[in-house]
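Hi R.,

Quick one: here's the Annexin sequence you asked about.
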Amino acid sequence: MDPEYFRSHIMCWGTLGTVRPFPNFHPDEDAMAIQAALQKKDVVTLVRILTNRTNAQRQAIAETFKDITQKDLASGVKKAVSGDLELLLLELLMPSLQYEVYRLQQAMAGFGTDEETLLEILCTQSEAKLREISATYKQLFKKDLEKELKGETSGDFSKLLLALLNKEAVASGVQRDIQSLSASLNGKKGEAGPWIDILTSRNSDHLNKVLDALELQRGQTVDQALEKKFTGEIRMGLKVLVQCIQNPYAYLAKRLVNTKIPILQGIMVSHAEEDLLCVRAAYLKLTGTSLYTALQKQYKGGHLQALLAICRSED
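And here's the predicted structure, written out as C-alpha cells:
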C-alpha cells in the first residue's frame, strides 16, 4: 500500500468510504509505472496503484495511459493478468455509472435472472443516481432499462422493480400509511400494491416510523409478516426492500457472508468510496469476524491483496 495514502485521511476526514483521493496525484507518473508493470506482469504494482486511487483518478490514469502509449489500459490489463484478479481490476477501471450498469446487465444476461442483485442495486441507490444509471444504460446498450426489467421479470415483482427504478418521494401521513399496510395483511394472502406504492415513494425516516409502528401494532416483525403473507419473488423483493430501509449496511453485510465472487466484488467496488466502512462495521456485528479477516480465509494471491486494499484494514 502507498504510504502517502494515509495522508489522505486528513483531507477526507469523515468519509465513510475506504478508498479516498490519493494525495499528490500525478496521472502521468502512474500511467508510466503501470506501463512498466504490464510489460513485466508486475501484479504488485498494478494492485498497489489501482486500488489506492479513486475512480475519478483511475479514469485520469487510463486517459493519460492512452495518450502516452496509444493503447487501451483495460486491454493491457487483460493481457497481463488473468482470473479473478483480472476481473476485479477491469471493474475498478470502469467509470462508476458504467459499473452499476454493467452489474445490472450481468444480472439479466444469459439463462435466468439474478433477481437479488437487481434488488440490491435498485434498493441501495438514490433517486438521482438511478436516473443517471438509466441514462447510462441506454447510452451503452441502446436499450431502455425499464423495458429490459419488464422483459426479465413479471407480476408484482416486476411492478416493484419498476417502482424502485422510478422512485420519487411523496409526502404522506404516517398513520395513514400504517393503516394501509396493516389492512393489506388482513386477508389470507397479502396485497402487494400498498407495499410497493408506499415503500418506494417515502423517505427513509418516514418509512422507519411506519414500519416500527406496524410491528408494535401487529406484535411481529415486518419480516415475519411478509414471510407469512407473501410467496415467491415478491416476498423476497419486499423483504429485501424492508431490510434496506431499516438498515442497508446490515443487508449488504449479510450479502457478503458466504457469497460468490461477483457479488462480493460488486458490493466492495460499488461502495468503496461511499460507505464501505459502514458495511464493514455491520459485517463485524453480524459475524463476529472482520471482513478483512474473512477475506484472508477465502481468497489468495494478487486477488486477495486487491480485495484487502479495497477493504483497507481490520476492524
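DSSP finds 21 helices and no strands in the chain.

Cheers,
M.
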